[in-house]
Structures
1.
Amino acid sequence: MPAEAAKPLRVGVFGGTFDPPHVGHLVTAVNVRHALDLDLMLLMVNNVPWQKVGSRAITPAADRLAMVAAAVADVPGLEAGAHEITAGGPSYTADTLATLAAEYPGAELFTVVGDDAAAGIRTWERADEVIARSHLVVVDRPGEPVELDADIDWIRVEVPRLEVSSTDLRARWADGRPLDYLVTDEVLAVVAERSLYASAGSA
Ligand code: ATP
Ligand code: MG
């Protein structure tokens, strides 16, 4: 059998609320895909980000998916993942990995997180299942280094550290400050079309 035929597909799962998706997400996704030679990197859009519910208004999932789809449309190897929205209800990575394992039999799965999310991995629903079903990949975000669970065999990938967050972007919209270069033009177009973030007209 030729060696290529036996090589399992390598699929990255970069989950998030993506409210909105920004250059920090995109730079992370393309660099992790490159560093780990992934065939596919899914930016997996949470349906209900249960750890964020109650803390603020969350943009409807369909709008967040449209922004992510626009952001990755022209980027080879990156795709928006709608699995959690299709599944409905609260989004648990453990369930998403089970769905992907069925969709891509034999694939090696990589769960990709920023270090802030990595620090909280034990608070995830069925964290042990996430650890069992996938390799865990962590990238640093700007700021103090965080302490990671030493029992997990983390794959660390160095990516350019960009001090940008969706929280900051939403504040920029609210204040009418510029968004240029922090989100892509394609995302800005979806925001304008769908009148997201209330004062997006000022962008
Ligand atoms: P919010 O401020 O609303 O929490 P966010 O910018 O942190 O938004 P999320 O959707 O919460 O974005 O994050 C999805 C994933 O992307 C998480 O694993 C998070 O750590 C990672 N991430 C977010 N921003 C960056 C960044 N600038 N560099 C690297 N990873 C990032
Ligand atoms: Mg976050």
2.
Amino acid sequence: MPHSPEVLQSIVESSIAGIITIDSHGIIQIFSPAAERLFGYESSEVVGHNVSMLMPEPDHSCHDGYVANYMSSGVARIIGTGRKVTGRRKDDSLFLLHLWVGEFAIDGQPMFVGTVLDITSEEANRSALQESEERFRQLVDNIDEVFILRTTAPYRYVYISPAVEKVFGLTADEAVADPGLFLSFAHPDDAEFVRKAMEEAGHAQRVEVEYRIIRSDGEVRWVWTRYQQFEVAPGDPPLVAVVVTDITAQKDAQRAEASARAEAVRANAAKTEFLSRMSHELRTPMNAILGFAQLLEMDELSENQHESVRQIIHGGRHLLDLINEVLDISRIDSGELTLSTEPILVSDVMDEVMDLMVPLVAARHLTVLAPVGDGCHEHVLADRQRFKQVLLNFVSNAIKYNRNDGKIRLSCSTRPNGEFAITVSDTGIGIGSEELKRLFTPFDRLGRESTGEEGTGVGLALSQRLIQLMGGRIEVESAPGVGSSFTVLLPLVKTVGLQPDELGSPAAGAVSSTATAPGRYSQLTVVYIEDNLANVRLMEQLAARRRGVTLIHAMQGRLGLDLISSSQPGLILLDLHLPDMSGEEVLRRLQAEVTTKGIPTVVVSADASPGQIQRLLEIGASAYLTKPFDIEELLLWFDDPHRMEGAVP
Ligand code: ADP
């Protein structure tokens, strides 16, 4: 049914798409309101004008040609189809529009109708989407991780990133084609739990698994795979995103680190073993050297012979000091040496140190300036014996490197940060600033070898390590020709509420042997269990110096135990390294028997490690004498085997 002109007019006017008609010369006949809105022209401004006014170059100039061409050839490039073109608004701005062109005739005259729609924003959206897709693809394509997208059921790959080739050695196309392929790459030992993980990923939210794969070229690699489920749209079956990372390099590094750690532990154990052997091997002969020399010294000798023996003892002691210091440094460096810190009254330790140093001070005509008032009557947290060792080292240096008639000053002070400072100053030769840098280097005597002062150059190196182990530090100030100040800084302990015996006061653990000794024994049988003949001979000679003492000895632990149970001695001397069983085991058995438990047992060993000493005292040893032992001290045991009874160990 033909429509009335009013109906057609209404269609044109209400159409959302712009409608433009032109004649065969390109002159605009109709320009709908939607077209007006699109191009910004009033219909009156364009009707009767060439449609090329709505186009930018090159169409603007060529449009007449297009129409003429069609009119003469009948070959249409646009008619009947739609295409994207650029339009020009009245204000000359350009925009993208979709144009469909149709042809009709009025009174035999060809006419064309163009329907136009603005697609600028759709285009912008589409290109933004494309751009973001492209960026995402580039990212996924270029990361080393393999990125996989797959469905849950049926099991199908939607996407596999190209990195799959680098990690697994197969192309993304090959992988997509065969859903079972990935599992076939798993190392046979890991395949079962990988299969389980894959299955779990079908229903769990997130699954992670680490396993080995065997690549297509046979190389074994470690991968870390994470499965994460997500919903694309509500109601749709979820997808699983899988990320596979090649962690072979990390695994190799971890393995190398673990084996380096194991190697370090082994090396440390070997070092400890070496130290303990060294300690034993060096001390055992020193025991014979110093022991026999001391015995010789007690005999009647010519003055020359006496001097020779004194030299042997002096050299031996020096060597022993050196052995002890070097072993201590090695022990600290290998973490073997442990200290037991407790609150120590500084003035006590200072008094002990000065008592020991009196003869040396007097020999050099030095003056000691004691701390002013109660300045040093404070407690610091320290290992008593080692703290004393450090102060002895400082004072002995202040004596050795002083000038005749010089001074030594002892002083204490509390620093604002709570450290307690104990200073030993001297008026000696001092140390140059260049030499100060090498002060704590073991065996570096800063060129003092030629001064005639004896030394090893190890004392300060050891002191520094010991104080650091106690949580403290050492400060040194020195000026050549003026003197030096050595300061130990240790944590100050507030003593409020502590009992005297908690403060490490010597009264707590000290034993006065004369006060508690029940008197000399008329007859004493001593069993000595020792496998080193030189030491046995030395002990025999010592026993011979005490009337009433009978020494019987056993070279083996078991034999020793038999001897003890048959002879019921008054004293047992026990070496620890025995051929058949350890001395520790002998001691345990003695302690386990009612008949032998009460016999005082003194361990005499070259092994001086503090842990060992502590352990044997805990098992029940009355004392632990380290070789080379002091002869006077050993003789005290012959005089009174019960001398330590009632003492706090
Ligand atoms: P040593 O056994 O040689 O005394 P130390 O480790 O105790 O070893 O000291 C290292 C070096 O530091 C000494 O050899 C000496 O040169 C120097 N030194 C230490 N204390 C003093 C001091 N009070 N005055 C001058 N020099 C000192």
